[in-house]
Structure formats: structure tokens, C-alpha cells
Amino acid sequence: MLEPVCPELQKFYDIFDQVDQSKVSEFKEFLEANAVNFNLFKDGTFIERSFPFDMIPRIIPKSEFDELEEGIIQRVKALNAFLNDIYNDQKIVKDGIVPREYVDSAKAFLPEFMGVNPPKGIRTHISGIDLVKDAVSGKWVILEDNLRVPSGVSYPLTIRRAFRHTYPEFFESMKISKIKHYGDELKAAMDYVNTGGLNVVLTPGRYNSAYYEHSYLAKITGATLATGDDLIVQNDEVFLCSYDGERQRVGAIYRRLDDDFLDPEEFEPDTLIGVKGITRAYRAGNIAIMNSIGNGVADDKGIYYFVPQMVKYYLDEEPILSNAPTYLPYYEKDREYVLANIDKLVIKDVAEAGGYGVLFGNRLTSEKRAEIIEMILAEPRRWIAQEVIEFYDLPCMMEGGIVPRKADLRAYVIHGEKVTVSMGGLTRYAMEEGNYLVNSSQGGGFKDTWVVEL
């Protein structure tokens, strides 16, 4: 079902009907000229490709976005409080809000970092909160919290520049909230937690799917783009090594690689992209790592179930935004419901991400359904089940004209001295009709998101 046309979107269409639509090709030329890629690595093959882009933006009325912003800020504050708690006193576990098993068995929980606290108590420096708009209720629903290495923010930032250049008419006639301050806000957050020294964006290198983004973010923040080979740890401090042998101390690292590859001393010993000894510097309080080590426990799909309760527990507030209706087979009542209704639910493996490990019960063969039931019974902690959210389609320009496609929204949040939400975000859409998996890693496209005030 297409999202209803609001007055703000109608104004876009009124202008769109009058502009030179042949200039749409300039967007593709701009993306190719600037190497705006989201590369795929599938079946052992590296595929370098331009990120599919649609010029019809998602338009959200500012009054609607204001409520979203308030709810997202509330959620990120609660998640940061949870992480600080879970790596210290674990009061939420002791008080019976979150079962201990859900923490201890979380793949990304790192008990060896208990008692290690990051600068300024901030762990959720950069968050990506994924939402959809329910076509039944008309309300926004949170599908997922991304607190490890959320990607994608560079794409709306980049395409906004192309939009303003190619079609200035929209920006002259519409009151569109600006997003160009994102780089300044990210730099301010890096400076706020910096322990003394340079700001660095740590990239795995050009073969990473989001390498374009890494270089882009380094540019707009004035940070140094570096690989693991460029950094060295001495006396529990991190230094950037230049080609002439000069060494400069580093105070904050926006890392774009997962915990497993961050430090061969602590994690995967064969990693070639990490920094040997960086966890020693982190434990000593000599480096701010953004996002913090061990954050993955908070975006575990099983822990997601408890986030509304975290809001009440840590903030003493009612949640502004809701989760999708979710069931934990860990609980007997939920398990019975899941097994009885598996053909109507979405089943997710809690350890997977990027659209992987997602199974739609109504698309499973009877044999596969029976197999999944056995797996749920054997490992109930490994799975969650959710009601299928009939979220809105958005209009997308494709070769056959304007067609409806499922789309979500990733909102970007920066947590520095204060918590801010970018006044836009990344709207991802499925390339195929009826496909509910819109993730970029599944081959989806993207469009800009405009927050518009009449």
C-alpha cells in the first residue's frame, strides 16, 4: 500500500511536473563521478557497484519528524544507560528486567571488558535506528537498533548536494530541513570524547562495502583516514605513523570495523586490518573508540525485546516509539504462540544482521517449517519472532515508470555532549515488487529523506 500523499509531498510533485526531468540522468553521472558505491560481497565474489538511487525523496512532515526525533533520542539514551549498566553493576539483570541468560549468551557481550568505562560515559556515539511506517496504524515502528558500526549516512549527505545543484527549484520553493551540519556535529562529538590528540576514521580499506563512506566522513569532519597499518600502540597510547616516520598521538577513533577484527591481541589473532594493542589503550582510558567495544550486546535482536522496558527502568518515562510486536521463544507462553503461528510470523536469527537470517513463515515449505521448529525448540535463545508489519510502499522511479516499493528509514543519531538526530536519514527501498527486505546488503536502493515544513 502506498503511503498517502501529504501536502508536503504534493508540493514536491507540483514542482516535479514543471522541471526538466531529463536531468535525472545527471544524478547517475554524479554518483559515478564521485564513486558513490555500496559494494557487495556475495558467494565469494566482490562486486563493485554504484548504489542504486531514486530521485523521488521520502518526505516527512516536520511535525511528524519532531515526534520521531523525541522518541529516538529517548531510546538512544536508554540504550547507552543499559550498556553502561551491563558492563558495570548489571542492576537491570539483578532486578529481573532482563534475564541473565540473555546477556551472558549474547554473541557480542564481552565480559572481559566489565568495569572498562569509555570517556564521558558515552558508548553509543553513532547510532542507526531502523524504522518503518505501519500502513495499518499509520505509526512509526522500530525494527532494529544499530549500535556497533552503522553505515549509510554519507549517501543522503552526498545526494543532497547533487539535488541542490541539479534541481535548485525544490530548495527555493520548499522549506527543507538542512542536514549539512552532520559533519560539524560528528566532529564535535569526536572532540568531546577525545583524550588528547588527532581524530581518526579507521577503515578496513577500499574493499570494504562502505569505503566511500569512510573517506567521505573523514573529509567532512577533518579527521585522518587511516588503516590499521597506519596506527601503532606504545605505552598504551595510540599513534598515527606518517610515511616520513613522524608519530602523532590519536585521541579518538571512529572505527569502521567490528570488534572481532579490532585488535589481534584481544580478538581474532589473524586479523590484518586491526591495531595491535588498541584494547590496552582503551582499557587505560587513553583512547576514545567510537562506537565503544562490546556495544553489540545492545543491538542483539533478543535484547531488542527489552528496550521499551529499559526506557521505563533507566529514564522513568513511557516509551514514545514502539517495537514491532515481538515474541521470545525463551518464554514458554511466547514459544507456544510462535510454534502455533509460525506460518504467519517473521522468524529472525538474533546473531545475524543486514537482512540475513530472516525467514518469512508464509514462504517456508512444510519441511523447512518443521526444521525451523526443531531449531527453535533446541535453541530458543537464538530466535525471535515478529508479526509481519505491513509497512508502506513509497513511489520509486524505475525504468517502467513510477512504481511502489517497500521502504524503511534509518535515522542517524550522534551522541556527544548532547544527543542529536539528523534531520533526514537514509530511506532504503527494495528493488523488487513485494520484497520486504530493503537492506543495502541485500541489493536494495536508496533515496534521500526530506523533513519538510509548509
Key traits:
454 residues, alpha+beta, Rossmann fold, Dna Ligase, domain 1, 3 domains, ten-stranded mixed beta sheet, six-stranded mixed beta sheet, 14 helices, 22 strands, 30% helix
Please, could you describe this protein's structure?
InterPro entries: ATP-dep_Glu-Cys_Ligase-2, CP_ATPgrasp_2, UCP005522. This protein has about 450 residues and is an alpha+beta fold. It folds into 3 domains: about 5-195 and about 285-320 and about 390-454, no CATH class; about 195-285, Rossmann fold (3-Layer(aba) Sandwich), CATH 3.40.50.11290; about 325-385, Dna Ligase, domain 1 (2-Layer Sandwich), CATH 3.30.1490.270. Helix content is about 30%, strand content about 25%. The chain has helices spanning about 5-15, 25-35, 60-85, 90-95, 100-105, 155-165, 170-175, 180-195, 210-220, 280-285, 300-305, 305-315, 330-340, 365-380; strands at about 40, 45, 60, 125-135, 140-145, 175, 200, 225, 230-235, 235-240, 245-255, 290, 320-325, 325, 345-350, 360, 385, 395-400, 400-415, 420, 425-430, 445-454. The strands form 4 sheets. Strands 3, 4, 5, 6, 13, 18, 19, 20, 21 and 22 form a 10-stranded mixed beta sheet that branches. Strands 7, 8, 9, 10, 11 and 12 form a 6-stranded mixed beta sheet that branches. Helix 2 packs across helix 6 (about 155-165). It is globular and about 65 Å long.
